[in-house]
Each structure stands twice: as C-alpha cells, then as structure tokens.
Amino acid sequence: MKTAVKMFSLALCLALSLCAASAQQAAPQHGIAVSHMDTSINPGDDFFRYTNGEWLKTTELPADRGRIGVFSALDDLSNKRVVGIIEELSKSDAKPGSNDRKIADLYNSYMDEKAIEDAGIKPLQAQLDAIRAIKDKHQLARALGGTLRADVDALNNTNFHTPNLFGLWVAPAFHDSAHYAPYLLQGGLVLPDREFYLATSEHMAGVRAKYQAHVANILKLAGFDEAEARAKRIVELEHSIAEKHISLAENDDIHKADNTWKQADFAKKAPGLEWREYFRAAGLEKQASFIVWQPTAFAGESALVASVPLDTWKDWLAFHLIEQYAGVLPKAFADERFAFFGQTLSGTPQQRPRWQRGVGVVNGVLGDAVGQIYAQRYFSPEAKAQAQAMVSNIIDAFRKRIDGLTWMAPATKAEAKAKLDTLYIGYPETWRDYSALEVKPADIVGNLQRASLFEYHHEVSRLGSTVDKKEWSMTPQTVNAVNLPLQNALSFPAAILQPPFFDAAAPAAANYGAIGSIIGHEISHTFDTEGSTFDSKGALRNWWTKEDLDHFGVATKKLAEQYSSYKPFPDLAVNGEQTLAENIADVAGISAAYDGYHASLAGHPAPVQDGFSGDQQFFIAFGQNWASKTREASLRQQVLTDGHSPAEYRAATVRNIDAWYASFGVEQGRKLYLAPADRVRIW
Ligand SMILES: [Zn+2]
Asked: Three-state DSSP class for 27?
C-alpha cells in the first residue's frame, strides 16, 4: 500500500498555467463542465475521455509544464494570490524582524538575479573547502552528520527521498503517540528513487547516461578538475546506495518499519559509519533511541561508508551540496540543473517563470506566515462552515457503511468508528513562530541554508515533548488534502475548498462527486491497510481481527491486479501494489461520497443539468477531478515513484461502483465493464 495519506503527491509542484483559464470557466458554470466532455465516446468504454475529451482536445500543455490539470489550475490561482500578498508586503516597508519583512526579503533575495550572478559559487565556498579538508573517515562521519535534516516524512506528506545520507522525520512515536520520536529514513540518492538506478529498461539506461553527464557538468561549473572521472565514481556510489535501499512498496509496510534502535545499537547493527561522531555532528548525541524505518538500508549504507574510498565520498558530498543549491546559484548552474531535472527527467521544455518559483520558495520556508494572510483573505467563515457540513455528512455515510459490513468483527467496527474524530478544515488555529529564523536581503543561498537548519532545530527540539494534536502538516494555500495517521486527523486546506472542487452555488451532485470523493478518499485512509495499523489514539496497534485482515487482503488483491493490468506505455505498467492504498481510497471515497450525496437530497429529486441526472452529474464531476495532461517523461516518473495511479485510471475506478452502471446503462461488452463479482467492494 502506499501510505496513507496524501492524496495528490505530484499535484503540488506539478503543472499549472494555461489551465487557469479552465478553472475560471468552471467557476461561473456552477456544476459539471459539460463543455469539457466528449459525449461521442461511450462512458462504458473510456470514462476519462467521456468526461474530459473536449478539454483534452482543446488544452495545450504549456512549455514550462510537465503536467496540467484541475489541481494545477488551482495551484496557479493560489500562486497568483500568494504573489499578490508578497508584492504588497515588498512595498510596505515592514518592520525588520517581522514575518512580513521576512517574506519580502526572502522573495526579493530569490528574485535578485544580479546579486546571485555576482556571488558566483562563493556562498558555498566555505563548505566546499571544509569538504576538501576532510582527512579520514572519522571526519567524514562528522561531515555526514552535519547534513542530517528534517526533510523526509513517512506518513503525512509521504516523502521518502533525501539526497543526504539519511533523513530525519519527527512525529508521534509508534508506541507512544503522546510524544514525539525521531524516525530515521534511508537516503543518499539525487535521482528520485532507487528504480532510476536499478531499472534495466533502455529508457532508464539513457536517463542514467544523461545524469552522469549532468554530474560532470555541475562539477566543471564549480571548478573541479577531472570532472568526468569524479562523476563516474559519484554515480557508481549512488548506484551502490540504491542497491541497499528498499522499494517504495516495501516502505509502506509499517510493521517492517517498527524498529527501535538504541544509539549504541547502530555500531553493532549497522557497522561502518562512526555513528557516535555522526550523531554528535547532528546534535543528537543525547537522543537515547531512534525508530529506524529501513534497517537493511542503514546496514548497507553504513558499510559503504567504510568500504568506498574517502575521496569518492568527498566528491559525493561536494556534488550533493552544489546540486541542492544549483537552482539559486548563477544562471549557468540553474540552467544545467533544469536541463537535466526539467527537460530530461520530466520532459518539460521550459522553466517556470521566476516569480512562480519564488512563490514556491516562500511557501516552502515561510508557509505559515503567508498562509495566515491567505486564510484571512480567501477563506470565509461561511465557506468553512459549508465544507465542515459536507465532511460531516460523508463521515456519517462512512459510519453507516461500517455498520453494514458483514465481514468486519463488531469490536473492529467500534474502534473504526472511534477513529472518525478529528478534522481540520481550512487553516490551523495556531501559527508557526518564525522569530528564530534570520532572513537577509540578497543572500538566497544563506537564507535557504538557515531555513533548513531552522526547520531541523525546530524538529529536534520537539523530541520527547508532548504531541500537539492540533498541528497541521499543510499550509492553507496548498491545493491538497491529507490524512495524519499518528494524530488521527484529516486536513482539508482552504485552497482545495474552491471551484471546481467545491462551489457553494453548484448542485450537490457536482460538489459530492468532486470534493466529496476527495474527502471520502482521505477519510478512508483512516481504515485502510495503513489506517488499520493505528488505533483511535494513533498508536501502532493492529486493531483488526485476523479474519478482518484476511478479507481485506483478498478484496484488495483483486484491485491490485486490476490496476497492474493498466499499461500507459508498452514497456511500463502501473504497479498495482505500489498504488494499492490510493486506489482503495478512491473506491472507498467515491462510495462514501455517493451515500453522502443521497443523504443530502433528503428524499427530494435531484435537479437535472443539461440533460444529466443527479447520479450522472455526480460521476461526471468525479471523472472531471482527473482532467489532466502529462508529458511522457513526467508520466513515466509518476508510474515509477508515485503511490497514486495516473489520472485516467483513477477516473476509470467508477467501474467498481454498481450505481455507475445503472446511471449510464453500461452493459456487458463495454471496455470498462466488470461482472458484479469482479467489482471490488471494500467498504
Ligand atoms: Zn490518498
């Protein structure tokens, strides 16, 4: 299963732009976008193109996007609003040290290309000199420890990638959900996942060759001699690290992640790296124990620290440092970085306008400071109340579904219902304190380095302290939704609660089909294979009976097979295991939203729109959530690294819902037709 949670991982930094137009068209329509449909296609053959065919024909992927869709259109809107806020603050001459001033200074330091050009590689020079001066593996351990950052997240925003040797995630402990504990995760790769190093396809071999050239180019720009030879050794080392990593699908097995190591255990269980020195440099020498997510990777990577020559590790450190900041170094570095990551890896011909990237930087560093203003301005108490009512309705539907399950034991049902408790809508009640973060004008590299250290110190300072149950993990301006399993909470930020997902003036059918199915999706993560491992207090405890789990295993296996049969490319199929949790959540979400929709009608007939019945509108709105266009390279990357299936297959999951067949008269012989016994029913 793909961990919980986050619903649209790629949605965030993906695509956008032209599509803003379509979002703005969708708003005044209030309901399904009939003009986006291609009704010449039979809904039973291809529901994605039936609901989005015209949109697909008339929408062009802008040169600076790897993907566009409904999510990216809303991202665009959110970005435009945020840049509006930032520009106002820039002109306001805010008090030094205030959040407003920090927002303005950070954004301007990103936008100041002249200062960046003038500084050259200087902002990193002291660190590069320090790496060059490393004399032995003892000092190497110290340097590696100094790179540890709070840059991964196993269960909330689900991010298993860090280019540093390891990554830290601070979250409620598996067996003591009232207190924060340190989780350590595998790392050390620049490419997005181990598959990029290990997959044998011709396509991937080509990507690797270009990656090695990219490493050499970056080293050359930074003035290294023998750049090609160094690049070859760096990529070989990363390849060796990738061999030690476990896969994304394995990362989702939480029981395998439940490994508490005392600090002294590391030397025995993962010999090679001088752990005492590593933890001292990371400021964690007093931390008694850690939860090690991937023990085999820790053993393997640590052994590589011992066996691989020091000079290779020094080059690896230097390259990883430069690569991490290449986007804010002089144009030659930034262009080289984009040529590989944007063009080769994502197939995007052109870079986003600088202001959009600047907004991303500000959201990443000072997200709550911006979010506070955003929420005030763009999320009314009325919208919050309406969204809340809708979520409550869908939760009620879920409770009824749980009651009606014939396969689930009564004790399991009771615990399941107890889990439907905490909800965050719109924006948090308290905001992050940025007073300890120093932001300087015209120093973007320094600002980003201080920000990542500020974040790290913040997380480390919480270790052992009482968990803040009201903490959010997403800013209000984020177009996404998330389930936080260790807090037992769901959050729906303000920015996703707007048209076309949610429109107070739209028929209930469209709102329930669109945002309702997303809400249902997130709720269902509370009960899926991951949810089943955390009880109503958020503790790691299997609260399902064995029979319950067995039934769930059989039902979900069918769904995994269904998705593994989808082939976006002749040489690449969807991985039904890797995407299982998200696919389950889609089936569950649409089922609960459908019930919630019917409950909201309270026996009244549904209004017909453009000849479509209420139920048809519900399913069409669901299909239109997934309107998107993706470049081949981006789509390939998604299939390999994302827990979410490609959009067109997410839309096709209506084939598991009985009511869909009745709504559109889909009969045997149609491409999406499944016999009743083959439809996957989980909740
Ligand atoms: Zn999800």
From this structure: helix
